[in-house]
Amino acid sequence: MNEVAVIGAGVAGIQAALDLANHGIKVHLIEREPTIGGHMAQLDKTFPTNDCSMCILSPKMVDAERNENIVLHTMTEVDFLEGEAGNFNLTLVRHPRYIDPVKCTGCGDCMEACPVEVYNRYDAGIGVRKAIYKPHSQAVPNIVVRDAEHCIECGMCYDVCGPEAVLHTDEDKKEEFTINVSAIVVATGFETFNPVEKGSLRYLKIPDVITSLEFERMICASGPTGGKLRKLSDGRTPESIVFIQCVGSRDMQLRRPYCSCVCCMYAIKNAILLKEKNSSLDIKMLYMDIRAYGKGYEEYYERAKQLGIEFIRGIPGEIIDDPKGEITIPVENTETGDILQLKPDLAVLSVGMQPAKGAERLADILGLKKDESGFFAAPDLKLNPVISNRPGIYIAGTALSPKDIPDSVMQGEAAAMKAFIDAIKA
């Protein structure tokens, strides 16, 4: 049969699909979003090299679209599974895009004409998008999607579309179909912790308390502010920033005892990027422990300290919004015993990872076990971390546990080779 399904098209899923396709295996790359790429597409730079994130990811996305052995199924979710290793029948549901994918050229004329602006999830809410949109300029496939929920049916997108690619709601229906595959790779990724759950940090109550993902989109040159750092309260450029670590990680009160692995390093990365652009910027980082475990990570941490970034060992219990509108962060430096009252212009919450939305339902459909934190479980995490409890189904990337991009890519490659063996045996 020589066909494999890869569920999730972030960097781990794309890498798994490319490896399988380059070995002659037909791959069904399944993604519920309008574009492949996952969270990596939202990032500005990667640590510890400060390489452009999209410069690494975009060629992989294009290769996946152009590879004759890869079939992209965007806006598609798994609905049912039957069979066993070597002979799985996977039922998929394709949600309507309300766009003719053959006619659409991705020119963007419809987006310019659309009068509706709504919350842009890709920009983490810092920016807005239209009711007909592409998630970002390098989206793959290069096709817009019409948001039927927010569309007001003004008809402007129909009028300006030369190829007449925009479809009415009755012209594009939800489609159910089944594929037959030898093996399945699950690479469904993660979502970030919502700090509203930790009310003492006043997220969404104080405008200048933002998440690390919102911060990423703000400093990205292709982001909604063009890479310019701004306070959300008044639009001014901040002169002081405090990063608060372990928000939604290593927190027994929230029943989230695990470390999210990347928070220390991505906060250090963002601090370095800011300090290199503006050496006078006052940057402090409040941490529990710095976990710089990868190759070149400790050197990266030392580089941050040499640039003048101040690391304070202590996690605040709350953020206070005083009557003057200033942020006050009381914290104890546990190394010196000093009680500090920090008053930054901007507070950035380094939010951790948690299982992707829908992971629980997918686990039930595929018959996979989960660990106590809600991630997919591997029976032998040390020797065979990509093998699940069900033969023929493999797990890669942050679907299994929090990890950085290099580790996610390596697990994608490992899962691909396990699936390749099943495919050639079928």
Q: Main attributes?
A:
alpha/beta, FAD/NAD(P)-binding domain, metal ion binding, 4 iron, 4 sulfur cluster binding, 3 domains, five-stranded parallel sheet, 426 residues
Task: Describe the structure concisely for a colleague.
The chain has 426 residues and is of the alpha/beta class.
Commentary on this structure:
It is a single chain. The protein is α/β, with parallel strands linked by helices and 426 residues long. It folds into 3 domains: 3-95 and 174-189 and 356-425, FAD/NAD(P)-binding domain (3-Layer(bba) Sandwich), CATH 3.50.50.60; 109-171, no CATH class; 193-352, 3-Layer(bba) Sandwich (FAD/NAD(P)-binding domain). The chain contains 9 helices and 24 strands. The strands form 8 sheets. The protein has a 5-stranded parallel sheet. Strands 15-22-16-17-18 form a 5-stranded parallel sheet. α1 crosses α2, α1 packs parallel to α9 (405-425) and α6 (263-277) packs parallel to α7 (297-306). It is globular. Residues 95-124, 141-171 form the 4Fe-4S ferredoxin-type domain. Belongs to the HdrA family. Its EC number is 1.8.-.-. Keywords: 4Fe-4S, FAD, Flavoprotein, Iron, Iron-sulfur, Metal-binding, Oxidoreductase. Part of a complex that catalyzes the reversible reduction of CoM-S-S-CoB to the thiol-coenzymes H-S-CoM (coenzyme M) and H-S-CoB (coenzyme B).
